[in-house]
## 1
Amino acid sequence: MKRILCVPLDPVHDVGIKIIRRKLADRGHHTELLPPDLPMEEVVRLAATQPYDFILVSRTLGYGVAELLSRFNDLLDAAGVRDTAKIVLGGKPITPELAAELGFDHGFGEHSSLEEIFAYIEERPVTVAAGDTRGPKPSITAPYSYEFRHARIGALLETIADRTLAWAEHKSSPGVQRARLRERILAEPDGGGRARLTAEYHTLCEPVIADGNRDGRFPKGVRRITDTELTRLRGLLDAKRPLHPSRIRHTGERPLLFKFLGSGCPTMDLLHGKVCERYGIDGFLIINPSWEARYEGLLHGLLTHENDGTITSLENIRLLRELLHPSTLLTVRGHRGLNTPETVLLAAHAGADLTKINLVYGSLGAGTDPERLTVDGLEAMRIAGRHGMGFDIPGNDELSGVPAYKSLAGQLINVMLGKRLGAKAILKPLFCYGPHIVLNGQMERNYVDYNAAKVRALRAVADVPVWPGEPIAFMTQTEERVQSANATSYHAALAASAGVDAITIASTDEAFSRGPITIASRIDSIRAVTDAYRFMGDASFAPTAQADRFTEEMVRDIERTLEAVAAQPSLPHAINAGLLGSREDGAYPGTFGKGSVTA
Amino acid sequence: MSIIGIAGTAKNTGKTTALNALLGEAHRRGVPVGVTSIGYDGEELDNVTGLPKPRVVLHPGMIVSTSLRTLPPAGWSVLERTGLFSALGEIVIARCEKSGAVVLAGPKTRADLKRVTERLASYGCGIVLVDGALNRIAPMPVADTLILATGAARETDIARLAAETAAVASLFRHPLFSGTYDVPPGLPRMLHSADDTSVMLDRHAGMHVLHLPGLISTQGWGLLADALTRVSHSISTIVLNDPVALLLSGVPSETLRIIERLARHGVNVSLRASMTLGAVTVNPFYPRFTGTSYEADTVDAETLSRTMRDSVKLPVIDIVRDGAAPTWEALFPAG
């Protein structure tokens, strides 16, 4: 039992110290609370009347307050109070450095926990902060059976998968060959063998990639990260330091929260990533430059890029993996270009947890030839399966104007193909105000029903994880940061209410930054979501009866779409025929890598 | 060994500049020196105003006492842990191996400072420099000599600043008492209210020389003077611990005026221990509050130095204008 005098040296702000006093009293300490705003000399006089163990002082900072608090410590010292009592300062802006400067024994600020205060008073180590408060790495795919609850849709998907795998059976591509070569290079010890294989690899690359790898003539804006930069970065970030993140979810362990990293510069990505980890983010999606998907071949080494998108070289992903917290999930985008299988292979070797593959969206929204992406994507799924990596299926084709049911039908095809090839998929319905919705009015009354219907429809069809993306609230955000943060937080609350496994959230300046996004904007949206989760707790949204009608329509339209696809000889045929997104919808089959598939 | 305290009248009055001047002179003259801070000093940006600050620069061989957490990762040998703590963790004694900037966060109370200066002395430091913090003064009686850093950050009205500093200097010249005294029983450690002064009068019971081990506030001095000039009593002398006990009363000029009034009524105020005020440093800089943040501003340096010299009968140094040597020479006139 400690004798504690609580002193609100503040005309107004004495709520915090009252709460702390009450909690200390509950823990069996003898506490006394002085009235607020007593003259300092009077406080010192009272403090000197009894041998207290602790004098707790609360005070907000303002003009001249530092001198005032210093004088308070002087008076306590000269009056002999400090012979027995420790003097502790609390207040929102208080840091240990400020407490030291003002002469207090200790200081507690906005980020201090009650447990830290109790531990200090009770002269024992802090129990929760002793180790790492971040738990083991969560698995998104493990709880799911990947069984199809909707028998007819399941059967159609089996047919589509049979036909597509048969179509692809004896086909290959430079992308597939490079991935196989790269696997041999990774297994080969340093030396002549590796050099020969690397030379062979470069014969399968476009000159701009081969030149960059051989003699450093990189595409514009790309350069190597220097040793000095690397040393300073490692000095700045200590990945092994225990992490005491803020908690985003108020109840439960889902949904996990992801953010994008892809400033072009791994160093900047890491600084942003470490801040986000501190604010409780569970994982990151590494977004590569769009040109990386369009060249045959990948650049090697630790590389920085003065433009959007971080180069997904083995070394870059390894650096991110090394310096992010071990429990942080890392997803590497592989799905939409000419290097899909190799990117997935590198991600697996670098220790990433997940990848992104979508044969349909990669063809219709990202410009790659459907035949090429199908051949490459199937190989990528095999690699993901061999390495136990899950993959998510971004549904961003909806942003081109493709209706949600077609996007979801395409995603379900990827789920079945993954299942056949041993890789576990994650469905990613968009939580967005997409063009098709704008034109057809599904969100005229609210944003809740249609988004909820997407999740319900997918749950009705299959036992597969659902992760709305990407980011949630797409096309409902403006460049005003508060509005953007609010929009994100409402969608995040809906996602939690709908029981999804994960969400991806944007920064408040993501759509309007015209350059790298800022750390403050990342914190905006994380804090907004944290607040929404505190507000919602274990309560939930109640969609209207319209959501049920949307769900029924959605399942029916998915089934109808898959029937049409199943009638085609293969997935590429169906994509080229516009069955999963037509020119009228705004989707065009891509042309990168056209004609590169070999028998 | 000589212990030099550097106290300020406010934040940004030039304590760190004075400390750096003395550290530089000690280095130049080859004097082994130890250094600590009763607060937190040497940071790049001020903890309160956010404005840039001078760094504390140490040289090889200098001994420092600071919190382990503030020591840079290299360039230091930790000589011992003290078992004393600042708000930033355990305080250690360390030797500087490589010139560089350091953040100081040392002992916060008089008792802790005494222990730390003893430990620093044991490593052969001829001089121990104690860096102050803001307007804090309570631990400083551990020092033999004090430098008072004041300036526009305390008060931008130069005449008022000079008058206040002159009053402070007078309090330091207060006479020492060397005789026997009595301590009235059951007195509060802080005499501040009319109740406190009545208790004192009730309990002095024929004592002539009273020792008050705690403090009397300026308000307490006023009440005491009123009582002692109104009622009959046997008190001839009131003995306080040291000049700092007088300084902490509150407003030095007011305290001084009341003490003079008491003397006219036959009650003298004396001190048990003295401290030399060796020099006053002046700094024309002040952080001007703009309503939302602070900006750097200055008063006229020449007027500040001249007016201060005319008021306090002590060496007055503007270190930025006059250089480091005059401060050293004011403290160690023999060289």
## 2
Amino acid sequence: MRSELPGGLIGLTCHLPGRELASAQLVLDAGAGREPDGLAGTATIVARVLTEGTAQLNATEFANKLESMGATLSAVADLSSLRLVLDAPVRRLPAAVELLAEAAGSPALDEGEIARLRRERLDEIRLENADASHRARVALRAALYDSADRASLPTAGTVETVTGIDAAAVRSFYRDTFGTGTLVLAGDVTDAHTTLAKAFSGWQAAAEPSTPAEPRFTRGPRLVIVHRPDSVQTQLSIAHPAPGRDHGDWAALNIAAYVMGGGLNSRLNAVLREEKGYTYGFYAGMQSLRRHGLLIVEGAVHTEVTGPALADTIAEIRKLVTGGPTAEETASAVRALADAAPARFETAHRIVAELASAVAGGLPVEYPSSYLAALRVVDAQRAGAALAGQVDPDGLTVVAVGDADRIREPIEALGLADVEIVED
Amino acid sequence: MPDTLSNISSAEGTGQTLPDATLHEHTLDNGLRVVVREDHMAPLVAVNLWYSVGSRHERPGRTGLAHLFEHLMFQGSANVAEGEHAALMQDAGAQFNATTSFERTNYFETLPTSHFELALWLEADRMGTLPSALTQVNLDNQRDVVKNERRQRYDNVPYGTAVERLFALAFPEGHPYAHTPIGSMADLEAATLDDCRDFFTAYYAPDNAVISIVGDVDGAKAFAEVERYFGHLGKGPGVPAARNGHAGPLPEQLRREVAEAVPAPALFGLFRLPADGTREMEAIDLAIGILGSGTSCRLYERLVRQDQLVTEMWFGTDRFASGDSVALLQLVAASGADLARIEEVFDAELAAFVSGGPTAAEVERVLAQTERSFLNQTATVTGLADEISMQTTLFGDPGRVFTTVERVTSITVEEVVAAARTYLAPQNRAVLSYRPES
């Protein structure tokens, strides 16, 4: 159900009988895409400081009040939106939604808390980058996007950019971006609109909505090795630009990607895991970003087999792009993605997350159901054509995080592209 | 009469139960225990099997076998070809997987009700006939997959082997919990086809398993279907006696220094706790929840917010019914912070809790969290089925699922403090301190 709320907010509510844990998300047009140049990570610090005290409660009091309701509230920024995510038992929902409104509408934005969160974020960057799959994603974005595109940097910023984020930067980002938004709520709740309208009665839409920029990519092929001495595995992460969820090929691309690496018997897992034992598992899928998408292929392989494993991976991608999936593979992927929807959307949390993601992507609220309908009509010809039309197997961006002393030669021998080495 | 937590807390009516707690139970002639819970909210059914076998049953030199065997359960059986299990599940729109822990191995799938019989047939075929499809090629392949799983999840991850090292440090050699389910590379390498066949014969039998079915099915009809697919399977020979897992609190603190390429100094700790199913375990879990869960608890407040010595914190429990449960602690130092100082503050907070006890607000908070985690666990057919299998396997009583919150609220503050005094004492601890290698 769609309704209008105070201050220009839109409410989307969904009554789910029997769902005792309710969920709500406030989606705001305050993503990292709106950060000033040089201050990447501001949206993330803003998101985190929202739950660290309000005009009425200090950080500990706020957390204690929330946890005493059996509720959780977190806030996270991606490139296109900033979202506050609330989960609470139904009978405590009205009080919990009041706290959500307080966090979003009257955060303290305390200077001391901001300084602590900045320090924690700087420590967090070191911890995150120690993880090979995270490090690979960072390198992948840096290689894939033009350096003028915000997406070329990590969403939560780098050591250089986060160091410059102070209270003034946080407060002006909050002032300039918090305004119009959408509240999504689901659970066994019959008076959702009243609950939301009461909690958000003081909301004011001050900021203007943003106009998202078109993505800017570098030209593939690219091949980057992040040198991590003594790694026992190599993390491989591969990407190719694609259109986004609003494009007619999106459902077909998802089916094709599922055939490539969606499940245990996908092509990549059949070869790299079940036949050769190179990996614990490979994954291929479509990632949706605002105004575009990415085909992502990733997996970790034993250092000793990095060359042959990458060769097999590229060969399987190429084979699927040029030959397309079989009718049987396509039908199986359609059933896997569409028939599994009821199990994936059992909880209020998952339903709200799906709707909120559509809203954040600028898509209509019907998107989740129209996507399921679109999946069901994809056939092999359609899936093959979409993949071949959107993905150039000679234009892939490939990142390998591993021991360059051992993997450089076998990778170079594949002749995919000039190797660029990055020191970890 | 001592005050229980439910009397102290000002929170209104926690002890909430699901609207309908009806469970249908039945045991087949071959010993397979079946529990059905009807839930008609969505056209879905969850099928969940627990085999009462885990890493604690492994013999020396064969660590990791229970988990390696779990992988082989997806490689086909008498009537299921290699790769067919996953293909059929995918075709049915199923979410499916399996996991191996210390005490059990579970196999589960959630799928549209129309494919309910497919799930039963696949599970029964591998329970009854797995060895007929076991080959050296399959074993060698899945051994490689598991070795890569070990590399990906533990060996190639900062602090990735901390938990494995803690169990090895906190329990004596040969104790069933001295090693973790992933096993060692050498033991994985040594596993033979005969080991796998023997393991199957000993543990994969209907009388060593529980099947839970939750979802859009009729109770009586579900029993009939289970009888149809599993009824013909023969009883197992009886499981070998398991080693005793009860060790009690540590008499003195055990410590190790680890120098590795990690991004920051960190402390990891393991505390030996009472077995699950005891009031003492409920009490210590409450103490640890009050001290270490969420962002308004004492430890977070002091170590992260106030003193800013720690950036990442975890303090929680893993419950085991057939031996000591454990608490695991992780404290990652903020840059420039000193591990000795962190430990000093940690100990001071624990001591203050033991001498002063919890506040009413802390009790209220931890009970709200208990209720919430109960709602979370039972919110999906998948989660509820796993919980039912757990209570049936470990305690022989699926109805315990619905009395989780009552068990917690019947605990007294005195019990919480007494448990903290015993189990959070400095000597009952194995500690690893990580120092970054340059």
## 3
Amino acid sequence: MPKPQKSASDSLLLQADVLVLGGGPSAAWAAVAAAEASAKVVLADKGYLGTSGATAPSNTGTWCVPPGDNRHAVVERRWQRTGDLADPRWMLRCVDTAYRNLLRLSEWGYPFPSEDDGRLYIANLRGPDYMRFMRRRVLLAGVTVLDHHPALELLSDGDAIVGAAGVARQIGQDWRVDANAVVLATGGCAFRERILGATGLTGDGYLMAAEAGASLSGMEFTGKYTLAPYGSSLNKGLPFRWASFHREDGSPIVGPTGEPLRNGIGDREEEVARALIDGPVYARLDQAEPALQGWLRQGQPNCFVPYDRAGIDPFSELFRITLRAEGTVRGTGGIDIVSDDCATGVPGLYVAGDAASREIMTGAVSGGGAVNSSWALASGWWAGKGASTHAKRRTGKAFRTEVQSLGQAGLRPASSPRVDISAGEVIEAVRSEVTPLDKNFFRTGEGLEKSGERLESVWRDVRDHLQGDGLDRVRTREAASIAAAGRWSVAAALHRTESRGMHRRTDLPGKSPAFAHRLVITGVDAFRIAGAPERLAELAS
Amino acid sequence: MIEIVSATRCVECDICVKVCPANVFDATESGVPVIARQEDCQTCFLCEIYCPTDALYVAEFAEGPTGITEAQADARQLFGSYARALGWKRGKAGGSEFDPTHRIRVAQ
């Protein structure tokens, strides 16, 4: 029997200086940073701090660049690959803060592996161990952690964000945290693809931020897919660096030079994507030498769970593969940052990790695991500090009696609720526009127009009629967030009439100088898209 | 996705109920936790490694249940196999200091 549920009126009310929403690495770092600045911190996560998010089930490299003369050169080389959209100043300050926090992890006693000369190797973080370790650091810092407390909406006093409200899903009780600042560290939007960490990554933060008046950027860059054994959740490309690829009839898939592909990651995903649109594709990790096979097995044990459980030897046998859509998780879109402390432009609202746009870090190309991991280490830190500074400035101000609940779509429909519109169907309808390879990996103006029309129709139903009660509000709100993210993504992709990085317009190949800037989206129901320079002028005025 | 909670191994600690990021399990008053929302499972295998008695089994297929039985998983020694590969034991973390991933990065 499930535990008895408390009535909704019996709700939990807490007060904090800083409220962090999310349970992945950037949430943990934000909470630690704010607590170190003497803020009273509450962290509320949809899942469990330690297992939530894309990092915990993974083994991720970091973008680890030690200080020194070489650092500028490393950043410059990486910038060259970002499609002209990243900002070298942000990249430099990110590697600096991320490096400091990796050293902090080592000082705290995180069990890093050693290199042959005995030095610690701090450029890699094993997800389950790292996030379990971070949970302990968050608790040691005195943070109040609320697991299984999904947030449903932000609260505003008319001038600033003053907290958030949600539901404690394991006890059926509503919660509200009044706070002087809120950090959104809710992760990206994986459009409910069955990839590691994706159950919780439904873009909730994007919708909450946009309802509060924040902008988004880089939403068109959702064309990143990663190889996985067919039907599995293992969207980890690394082992496919040493693979061959074959069609159903056994013929090899060839690269741009006409030679059979021996490496399926990075730009070569394009050949695999083309073959997958035609029919089933099979791979074999036959380019890995025996020593490497051992390191792969021991170093990336999660990648081998699907093979071992299916009874396949991936080094000698062919197995079927797929490309998993990764939305904004390995894409770059998210909430636009307007200042160095990861503020959103909405007073009291800060953003960190994949909830934030990573366009300033990695432009039009995927940050993969490494850049995104360092970004979580750095942006979490900045957002936590920024939020605690804002909270201190507000200390002493009594909470106003007039607190507005900002949640709209999926919570408070504009028209009468309809039971025939379900969260599950909404998500399926969005998925069918934003995940198929022939619509979203390879894009055309015509295809995007059609997807845009369908998503407008889905959005109207969501906006006007989708509503849940009790715990179902979590599902309807997730569906509304996914619908909003899909609609923004397709609209931005239509607006960017060129190809750049992971935005591949087969009808418009090549970069256009007219689009060497970021696209910023503002608004939920009626939204506008502006180039980043226009947006900056607007903020200055 | 999650398919088996082994009643013979489970000690009813309800850690899986607490740590599952997708809230797949429900605790029960009279016994082992139940898989209440299997469809929400993200096939991350983390419940397995947090389980102190290797009582959980997550099959490799993420899109739906495979129907594997406890006897089949047991015969193939699959219970706790991911925890062993990582170096986690009885629900406690371990083994990250032996991670050879830096050698893979050099080869890459």
## 4
Amino acid sequence: MTVKAEPWQKAEIAGPKKALLIMKPEVVVAMAKKANRPILVVGHQAVEDYSNDVKMIDYAIRISNAAGIPMVVTAHIANECLKRGFSPAGSMSAMEIGNRLNDPQWRGLDGGGTYDLAMFMGLPYYMQFVILSGLKHFSPNLKTISLDRFYNPHATWSFPNISVKDWNENFEIIIDKLKGEK
Amino acid sequence: MLTKGMNMKVKEMKTNLGIIKGLELSFDKVIDETWEEPMGPTPYPSITDLREWDMKLLNKFKPFYLPYCDVCCLCTFGKCDLTGDKRGACGLNMAAQQSRIVLLACCIGASTHIAHARHLVEHLIEKYGRNSPLDVGGLNIDLEAPITRLVCGIKPKKLKDLEDALDYCERQLTTLLSATHTGQEGSNLDFESKVLHAGMIDHLGLEIADMAQISVLGYPKADPEAPLTDLGFGITDVSKPTILVIGHNVPSSVGIIDYITDKGLSGKIEVVGICCTAHDATRYSSMAKIIGPISWQLRFIRSGLADLIVVDEQCIRADTLVEAQKVKTPVIASSPQNCLGLQNKTKISSKAVISDLTEGKIPGALILDPDKVGEVAVETVMTVAPKRNKYKIIPEIEKIVETTQACTECNECVRACPNNQPISKAVKEAAKGDLNPLAEILESCVGCARCESACPNDLPLHSFMVRAGEKELLGEKFKMRIGRGAIQDVEIREVGGPIVLGDIPGVVALVGCSNYPHSGKELVEIAEEFAKRRFIVVTSGCSAMTLAMEKDDEGKTLYEKYPGNFDAGGIVNVGSCVANAHIAGAAIKIANIFAKRNLRANYEEIADYILNRVGAVGVAWGAYSQKAASIASGCWRLGVPVIVGPHGAKYRRMLLGRKDKTEDWYVYDARTGDKIYGGPAPEHLFTTVETKEEAIVLIAKLVMRPNDTSKGRAIKLTHYIDLHKRLYGSMPDDIHLFVRHKADIPITMKDEILKVLEERKWKETRIPDPTLLPRMIRKKKGD
């Protein structure tokens, strides 16, 4: 099967350096495992009815719990985490977390050092597009993964455009394997 | 007052020294020095004169670049790949390239406003004379032109006095644009400084334009009780011939209204407008009505309600002529900036043009004389309207159900939609006979019709939505307070103190276009939230229209519920895009009228004052244009932070503070020269937010300023914490950064805040007399 690395919003062409396709969920697991300081950034769309039964925020929390990856929520959705009994590591705007990740001197939310992997999900596509671009260009030591079900070309790795069903299945595998790797 | 281009010739003059023959004297400028205020340090500043101030801002609010793509394609060296640390063939890196693009955007925006102002001033001088007095508020306004005074150091009294300021704008613009050429500026921060300069001259252009039209065309003059006007898709009397005006530059609309009046046709023809021309037409005459913001163009044209369309300039769909032809509506283009490929009929007899248009020999005409536009438009529409019989291309429901069967759910429409709306699902539902999902999409539709362009089956998806939402559209009948123009000096006197001291928590300016992430309802919610909280809410442009487009349970719009005066709890519509000048002007006037700071050519000091004292925040929830970018950049230089909705991320650069970097937030205490921690107030100068909830909380935070009194800070903190708790479900995690001493703590929240402060190992500091300018320190250390 050939999968095209085509931006979901078709005019959002990145340029010469495009995200590698995540063809197997194990890629995400391997990247998360390899990273010394990963972080998960979750935007407000994670709490919208995006998937049929499960909201993205639930997957995000499960990933965070499974791998012990700190999670930053953007916009106003921290409360949705708290309602689920989960305390995010941070709550700040998408631009603020993008800007901090862009800063090689930033020691992270816990002061423990610079992050080397940032996984994004749940931001409006075009916002995530430009934030990932900023990180691609100005944070050479940071790898990024777009976990949304749309190809986002400025990430280091991105899912292709996939169905909700495939996306759910990928997440179940990622979470299972992360649990195992913990 | 300034006189230009004086020439004196003396044929023969006898003096004690002898006889002088053929003496000829030429003066470029004669400045009438009757203004007592001394000239400040930066009259007509060059692009580098305020560079130091810019760098102070840029050091505090550093650029965060968000490139659209990896390449530069602006010259034939390229395309150049600028990924990461690569440089292009010219030597430019990605940061500089992004700031260069921002500068280009702001130059486009500023040039649009300045050209608009130039056209207006020339047109009004031609029609009313160079000595027409400037009057934006009668006896209520002495400080008539705050931006012009601040930037240029002149006090314009007559139309002709504006020409010099315009000359200055155009010189600056040319220089700024030249800096974007390959092989010119190489530093991203210097590009950013130039961006701020572009914003400043943009504001000057705005002020000139609105001052000229208010003065001469009889608009409301700083009137808090400007009348209400009709607004909405459903306000058109479809039994009458209807002229639709679209754009921003009002003379052609004035020509139409004057002709109707002169010919005694009032009440027989509808004049309706979209976008800022509509604002200004209603400021000119009660005859005019407003259909809605820019996103209403396609839906109205395709509905066939306009029997003739007159476009002037700015924010007009480039396919207006194509769309108009589909519904057999003739188009008159009236601006050199937007000729639409039409034949220039300016010098052809009106009778002949009217004949060609009514007989359909030509689809439209370019007419560059506003009075002639009036005559041709009115005479044409009366003949065309009965022939057209409101011909429309909105398909019938049966046709929609039939044609949507062809949809393969390829999702190309969704992928083309700026807001990722579930169009294909709605189309499938339509194929089953349920048009409600399409109607729901229309509520949040920005009217771009990219879905149609993308559809491989060429389904007219936007038209489907319009049909689906037709009932709601035709029910759109709202009241909007027309643009009042400037803020009165007396209003500033009354609120200047409470704003600077913090008793009035802030001024929120809801401005800009309608490129909203969802429906305009969110903007209404934001406005009402702050009006209820006794902030001053000011608005303009398409945002001002959007604020009218919701009714409460009693059928009232915000304009019917809240007063139009510049005071706590007011919702103040200043007018069209160019009326944004009055919002910046109000901040400047506070510094001058309330704080007695010299205004004249004293930009840096006034901006320093506003940044540190005036809790004003701009919000462009649906900003899309380059003009919005230049307006925002004018606010930044003046020290006013701006929030944009999610699509604003595509402006490619934010100016963000870092509250975690304590060292960034020190200010001088002007009393002592000590450096005092002033807190991250405001935290950012330009940022994008995702949701209305985030916007609301951030507005409440960004109005804090280092100068707030304890009482004022406590009020501001109350709003910030209350909103954060309500919308985020928790206490903010940064309260300790905004409490300077215990008197700042809101009394009702004392216990829980003290607990937070204790956890954060908070230490008391003092309230400074804040400034970023060493020269403002009254007593140096060691004195």
